[in-house]
Fold this protein.
Amino acid sequence: MIGAKAYAVHSKEEKLGPWSFERREVGPKDVQIEILYCGVCHSDIHQARSEWGPARYPMVPGHEIVGRVTKVGADVTKFKEGDLAGIGCLVDSCHECENCKNGQEQFCKKGASATYNSVEQDKVTPTYGGYSDKIVTTESFVVKVSDKLPLSGVAPLLCAGITTYSPLRKWKIGKGHKVAVLGLGGLGHMAVKFAVSFGAEVTVLSTSANKEEDAKRLGAQKFVNTKNTDEVKACTSYFDFIVDTVSAPHDYTMYLRMLAVNGVQICVGIPPTPIEFMGFALIGGNRAITGSSIGGLPETQEMLDYCAEHNIVSDVEVINIAAINEAYDRILKSEVKYRFVIDLATL
Ligand code: NAP
Ligand code: ZN
């Protein structure tokens, strides 16, 4: 086994703190990575605090991992020592079911292994995430990272990036579409960057009036303060798509009414409580509400390549790992602009 250092949380009430544990030895198909940066996703908070149901402790959160390969197994073909590499929300799956074969490993019929708060394919060994100095992962779940982009800004692409890129691609969103991005946080600001890059007219729907300038800088044409009822009314039946990135309970009925006929609200945010809305908000306009879960490995690589080609990275605030609990508090106050990224050299 290989000794590893991390920040972990031991129960839903506790704060994160330093922890030592062991990673597996590098197997024939494994890659060992020295983690350089790891993004802080709101999903880390939901899970550290068991907001989506009982979690596994001790938990080492973190699924926006970028680092350098330090060792490869005998059968590894994609990587060599010294390469840059990334790991997102998944570290393994069955590789055999139709969803895995289609590159949608997140829907593996036997259950994918998430990067943390999950188990390896033996269904026993716990997985530990990226708030750590190193990780060992099967090479097919490791993606290639370009050296053209700043690595701290690349880390959030591994979750916030792919989670917003994937539904925009699936729904072929681009020129001629009016798209609203609901919530300007980690996922939201990436959704704005991608939708703008794909040619859509983008509006940010936000509860934070102080984010207007940033929304425009990111390329959005319009900004709506959703606490202002007149501004909300003016959006009635306007958008073709809403990309909903909100992490907390919110008024789905109000937002559905902003969709034009045949409009689609794509939910990527996962509030801890069930979603509720008035049926009439759907019926009046043949509107649809749908969801989207991260993205598979081939699409994650496609997204990273697209970002390298178009110079797209996340806007980040790099933090010392000792500031992680404070960072969680600031995320909950919608104060992050727009993703905290841990510099693992501080561990
Ligand atoms: P984040 O950085 O905290 O951003 C969420 C944003 O939602 C906030 O910045 C805020 O934007 C808005 N918001 C917060 N509370 C609100 C409320 N009560 N009403 C309306 N708006 C509110 O979080 P994130 O990391 O982007 O993650 C967002 C959600 O996506 C989380 O639930 C996360 O678990 C989920 N997620 C899903 C997937 C997936 O595969 N589907 C992947 C990753 C994350 P404003 O200040 O602009 O209002
Ligand atoms: Zn995430």
User: Anything to note?
Assistant: The mean pLDDT is 98.
